[in-house]
């Protein structure tokens, strides 16, 4: 008589074979257009639409996929909200299993809050949302994935260093038909799904690194898009009793990994 273990192994093997087969069939059957001109036109339409929006807000779900040294894929998930009032106001919040982070900018000061640890930091930065994002990157080495989508003319940063642009046809995100655009530069593979129709907003954004060991991947899915912002959505308040950190400790506020993760060398 066949043992339960044997049946389990056979079942798992068939399941794995079926999954691999489905992926291969899907890849072969997908309509792929390598028309670079068409892909750039879709990106330009998205960029124009995003540039025109002076006020907008959305919810998001994000996933950071990392690969352990044992070869296991681990997904770290979080959800959040973003509200934008151009040129110089933004509030973003992200809550996951190990972090509860909030960021606000009023055109003069950036406030970063770690609610679980009850810590915060404030940085004097004057200017637009673009100025704030670029200053955090260049002066404080802080990079927020997908932040370029919040700038005016986002295609200008998306296309930096890009060597390959393709339109991979139509996908569906949250019931919305989207054009699937794939870009590649020297460090990243970038995928962006852009809503078809009169509101060509980004619906999903995926960054896959190639210059970092074990190639982590970051995914943001945008939900509940709205073209109006309530003033309360931009308000940010420092919690009572919170400890203020100096700029050298900003990583503690914006870290991507829980304390029980040890990040290896790149």
Please characterize this protein's 3D structure:
The chain is α+β, with helices and mostly antiparallel strands. It has a single domain (32-254), classed as Clam (outer membrane lipoprotein receptor (LolB), chain A). Helix content is 24%, strand content 37%. It has helices at 4-29, 36-52, 129-140, 155-158, 250-254; strands at 55-67, 73-85, 89-96, 100-105, 109-114, 119-124, 164-173, 176-184, 188-195, 202-209, 217-226, 243-244. Strands 7-8-9-10-11-1-2-3-4-5-6-12 form a 12-stranded mixed beta sheet.
CATH class bucket = Mainly Beta
CATH homologous superfamily heading: Lipoprotein localisation LolA/LolB/LppX
Spell the H/E element sequence.
HHEEEEEEHHEEEEEEH
- Say how many strands there are: 12
The end-to-end distance, rounded to whole angstroms, is: 50 Å
Rg over CA atoms: 21 Å
Strand content: 35-45%
Quickly give the structural class: alpha+beta
Question: Low-confidence runs (pLDDT<50, min 5 residues)?
Answer: 1-11, 18-33
Annotated CATH architecture: Clam
Overall geometry: globular
- Give me the oligomer status: single chain
Q: What's the main sheet like?
A: 12 strands, mixed
Count structural domains: 1
| Distinct helical segment count | 5
User: Percent of residues in helical segments?
Assistant: 10-25%
In short:
The protein has 266 residues and is of the alpha+beta class. The chain has 5 helices and 12 strands.
Helix/strand layout:
Elements: H1 4-29, H2 36-52, E1 55-67, E2 73-85, E3 89-96, E4 100-105, E5 109-114, E6 119-124, H3 129-140, H4 155-158, E7 164-173, E8 176-184, E9 188-195, E10 202-209, E11 217-226, E12 243-244, H5 250-254
Parallel strand pairs: 6-12
Antiparallel strand pairs: 1-2, 1-11, 2-3, 3-4, 4-5, 5-6, 7-8, 8-9, 9-10, 10-11
């Amino acid at each position: 008589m066949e043992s339960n273990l044997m049946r389990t192994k056979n079942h798992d093997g068939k399941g794995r074979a079926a999954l691999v087969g489905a992926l291969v069939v899907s890849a072969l059957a997908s309509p792929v257009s390598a028309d670079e001109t068409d892909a750039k036109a879709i990106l330009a339409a998205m960029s124009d639409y995003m540039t025109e929006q002076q006020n907008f807000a959305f919810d998001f779900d994000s996933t950071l996929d990392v690969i352990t040294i044992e070869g296991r894929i681990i997904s770290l998930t979080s959800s959040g909200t973003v509200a934008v009032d151009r040129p110089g106001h933004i509030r973003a919040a992200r809550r996951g299993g190990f972090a509860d982070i909030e960021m606000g900018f009023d055109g003069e000061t950036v406030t970063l809050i770690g609610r679980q640890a009850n810590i915060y930091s404030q940085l004097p930065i004057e200017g637009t949302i673009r100025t704030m994002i670029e200053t955090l990157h260049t002066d404080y080495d802080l990079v927020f994935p997908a932040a370029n989508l919040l700038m005016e003319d986002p295609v200008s940063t998306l296309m930096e260093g890009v060597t390959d642009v393709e339109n991979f046809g139509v996908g569906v995100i949250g019931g919305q038909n989207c054009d699937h655009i794939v870009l590649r530069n020297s460090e990243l593979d970038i995928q962006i799904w852009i809503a078809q129709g009169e509101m060509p907003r980004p619906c999903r954004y995926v960054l896959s690194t190639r210059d970092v060991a074990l190639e982590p991947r970051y995914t943001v899915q945008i939900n509940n898009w709205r073209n109006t912002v309530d003033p309360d959505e931009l308000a940010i308040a420092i919690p009572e009793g919170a400890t203020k950190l100096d700029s050298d400790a900003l990583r503690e506020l914006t870290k991507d990994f829980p304390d029980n993760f040890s990040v290896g060398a790149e």
